[in-house]
Specification:
The structure holds 2 protein chains of 2 kinds.
Chain A: H1 6-9, H2 39-69, H3 73-78, H4 80-99, H5 114-123, H6 126-139, E1 144-151, E2 156-163, H7 168-172, E3 175-181, H8 188-191, H9 195-202, H10 208-222
Chain B: H1 2-15, H2 38-69, H3 72-77, H4 79-98, H5 108-118, H6 121-133, E1 139-145, E2 152-158, H7 163-167, E3 170-176, H8 183-186, H9 190-197, H10 203-214
Antiparallel strand pairs in B: 1-2, 1-3
The chains are: A mainly alpha, B mainly alpha.
Amino acid sequence: MRRFPRELLVVKPFFRYRCMHTLPDLPYDYDALEPVISSEIMKIHHAKHHKAYVDNLNKAEEGLQKALSEKDVSSQIAFHNALKFNGGGHLNHSIFWNNLAPKSRGGGYLNNGQLKTQIEKQFSSFAKFKEVFSSQAVAIKGSGWAWLGYDTRTKNLALATCQNQDPLLATVGLIPLLGVDVWEHAYYLQYKNERPKYVDAIWEIVNWKNVEESYQKAVEFSN
Amino acid sequence: MFALRRLATNAIISNTRAAHALPELPYAYEALEPIVSRDIMSLHHTKHHQTYVTNLNAAEEKLKTALSKGDISTVVSLEPALRFNGGGHLNHSIFWKNLSPESTQPSEPLKKAIESSFGSIEQLKDQLSASSIGVQGSGWGWLGYCPKSGCLKIATCANQDPLQATTGLIPLLGIDVWEHAYYLQYKNVRADYVKAIFEVVNWKDVSERFEKAKC
């Protein structure tokens, strides 16, 4: 059975035999993404929200391991909700921190290359792509994520949205390349109810180098 | 037959009432401090609730047009917008009245019903709190009345799904656990917000809803 590249989809547990997930460090300081995202938001988002997903994922996995060892099918199924929510939360945020970079480190700038060419081919222009992506992100009802993903079946880029922390690949079948978190905790302290302003601003700090790397790996895998 | 249906539809459309409007709060924006800050109340009411009202009116206009044309596909496609914005308007209209700066107590009949369904008011608070805190993503925790059994029940709804249309329970008390309802003040600590909000529950309003629900 073909397996998707681990580094794109899997957050590596810390210990080899004891499967315990840990909160990844941010690749920059809490204030590095200002003024687009405040240090207050980054700190709470990373140290509280993401940490909670990690802690609760570890608890859910422990419960699942026990249910598996006891052949308790009902409990296995009952753990699914917590696994999807917290596992998805951990996957999504792990991708998100790398999807962003300060302008001083290339954030917001997409070089000419395979990804830019493909975006322009599929969306007619980079501006049009941003417009469509943004409108989908803004339109999410409640909490969720907007994604640029890669479809290995059609070998094309695709846009999608997911509710809550539903992880992209498991839910929609696309390899995640770029995610924008539109849960209110991602922007409310700074942008209040104005989600469109946050989505508009976040383009200034997208780490296109990281997105392009993920895209190239996804293309390589599907060839 | 189609002419008759068209006539009936037109009659319904022409008799439908005017656009929905944002209800006024029964108290000043700062009245619920320190439990819910003035900033939150102001944004929550004038921005979030107003947006649901505006978008509900827009969706209903489209619905009227689609109905008048017999355009079933558009009627069906409008459901998410109606549910989200209609639910948002319904839920928040209840919520503002569910809260009060005045100190209130449940009526005797409500107290008895709570004790019968949950054991005590404290146990109701514990269970409603746990359910509300446990909502994944955006949503509401509810105390509702089940017309079939005559019992009180706790339920949660995702996003702005309205309680009665979704579960059949009649809403008595709702706790909004969308992050916009508390984040500016409580940050990620939803549990602190849910615990605190019981201090401003308008038990008089909850009791009145219970009396109406029983009829």
